[in-house]
Amino acid sequence: MDNMNITSAQYQVDALSGTNSGIQATIDGTEMSAPLDPANRHYAEIMRQVEAGELVIADAE
Amino acid sequence: MSSKARGLADLGNVYDDGALSNRNLIINGAMQVAQRGTSATGVTNTSGYYTVDRFDYYTQSSGSVGYTLSQSTDAPNGFGSSLKAECTASQTPTGNFNTYFRHKFEGQNVQSIGFGTPDAKPFTVSFWVKSSKTGPFTLSIYRYSSIRTTGLSYTVNSVNTWEYKTLTFSPDTTGAVNNDASQGFQVAWFFGSGPDLQSGTFTNGTWSSYVEDEYAVSGQTNITTIGDTFQITGVQLEVGDTATPFEHRSYGDELARCQRYYEKFTLIDAYRPNAIAWGTGNTNAAIPFTVTKRASPTLIVHASGDVFTGSWVSADGVAIAGTGPTINGVSLDIQKASAYTVKYGYFIRNQIFSVDAEL
Predict the structure, then answer these.
(1) Cα three-residue angle B204-B207-B209, rounded to 5 degrees
(2) Cβ-based neighbours of B105, under 8 Å, separated by 6 or more
(3) CA of A11 vs chain B CAs: smallest distance (Å)
(4) Which of A55, B68, B181, B261 would you call most buried, defined as having the most Cβ atoms within 10 angstroms of its Cβ?
(5) Burial, A28: exposed, middle or buried (Cβ in 10 Å; 0-12, 13-18, 19+)?
(6) CB count, 10 Å around CB of B343?
(7) A21/B324 touch (CB, cutoff 8 Å), yes or no
(8) CB atoms closer than 10 angstroms to residue B182
(9) Band of residue B146 on the pLDDT scale cut at 50, 70, 90
(10) Which residue, among B35, B55, B54, has the nearest Cα to B230 in the 3D structure?
(11) Taking a C-beta distance cutoff of 8 angstroms, is the pair B301, A34 a contact?
């Protein structure tokens, strides 16, 4: 029922701890950081598009 | 029956339905809170939250239609604001085109309706509507976890005139609603629909599985020509078959309810927070949220602001620090190359960011 246009996605790593802190993504033209929480609508849509083969999340730099 | 007797009878019904206060399950139904801004121009094919909190704009269109969405000061007596769509680019609706305002509920907040149980109750949606076009409009219900839908139609009788509408939906004893913080169901006020959504038999209050061609009333009025307008306010959804007077809440009460889903921060100089450097280019500040969020929110940075390193200098950027935001707060990484001494504290200011935990 929702439609998000996701044009980029990349894992973010907290440099201090070395752990993933989220996914930096451009959604509907806005850059944002989605947490790794399935209850978050942006993260859920990113993962839905990944599973559908519509999106690839780039590794962290 | 006199109006006073009628009112007492209605009150009795409300008591029977179990709610003398907090009757209204809608948040921000008087359109008082607009944290994102009071106007958004040139809104086309991108759904989302633009102005008034808790009411998003949904569109399924690849065409040319465009709108200005706003928190309007035009409202019926007793209200200060409304949510308004004004068409600024025309399109003839075709196929499965549809556009509407929508309000989503957490499943745990609508358990009182009793969906999917033998004791399921009716519920009533009441609202004020004003449109530049007369004719039939659709109010649809969509339930997420069990994919159950229904809809009722109402008619706008006079152009550019505030009209009060009440629609009562029958109990649905099939399919429970999730009892958690995820999407329970949504209410949608259609202001545009293509023929594909009207080609079947409109549900007209009958609950069923989702079928696209039964979703909108035949002849749905389309606000899709330049200058067309559609406005709503005073929205209430309550358990029972009776619409009671709108339950007004204070601005502060509504703001706090809205901030469970979205909150915007401006770290102004007047209360500049402290950050502690852990690297020569990174200093972290923990920012608690005003209200506990529905879920871990998305961070959107609008301005990177400044950091004090002997004088105020512009930060290079702001990122999430730690393992990401929680429902209670976020740690920000204020970045400035070769500017910090590890373990030193730095004032920060003018960072502007929002956190989004919407459904």
Answers:
(1) 115
(2) B25, B183, B184, B185, B186, B359
(3) 12
(4) B261
(5) middle
(6) 8
(7) yes
(8) 20
(9) confident
(10) B55
(11) no
Residue identified by tokens 């399935």 is: A38
CA-angle at A32, arms to B268 and B181, nearest 5°: 95
- pLDDT tier, B19 (very low <50, low <70, confident <90, very high otherwise): low
Cα–Cα distance for residue pair B307/B248, rounded to 1 Å = 42
Residue B57 · residue B85 · CB < 8 Å:
yes
Helix (H) or strand (E) holding B82: strand B82-89
* Predicted local distance difference test score (pLDDT) of residue B8: 67
Work out the minimum CA distance from A3 to partner chain B, whole angstroms: 7
| B-interface mutation test, from A30, A33, A36, A45, most B Cβ less than 10 A away | A33
State pLDDT tens for residues B259-275. Answer: 999 999 999 888 888 99
Q: Which residues of A fall below an 8 Å CB-CB distance to B? A: 1-5, 12, 14-17, 19-22, 28-37, 39-43
Task: Report the complex ipTM.
Answer: 0.96
Indicate the length of chain A as a whole number.
Answer: 61
Token digits for B288? 């608690």
DSSP B219-273: T-----STT-EEEEEEEEEEESS-PPPP----HHHHHHHHHTTEEEEE--GGGPP
CA neighbours within 13 Å on the CB side: how many for B277? Answer: 21
Q: Which residues of chain B neighbour A43 with C-beta distances below 8 Å? A: 298
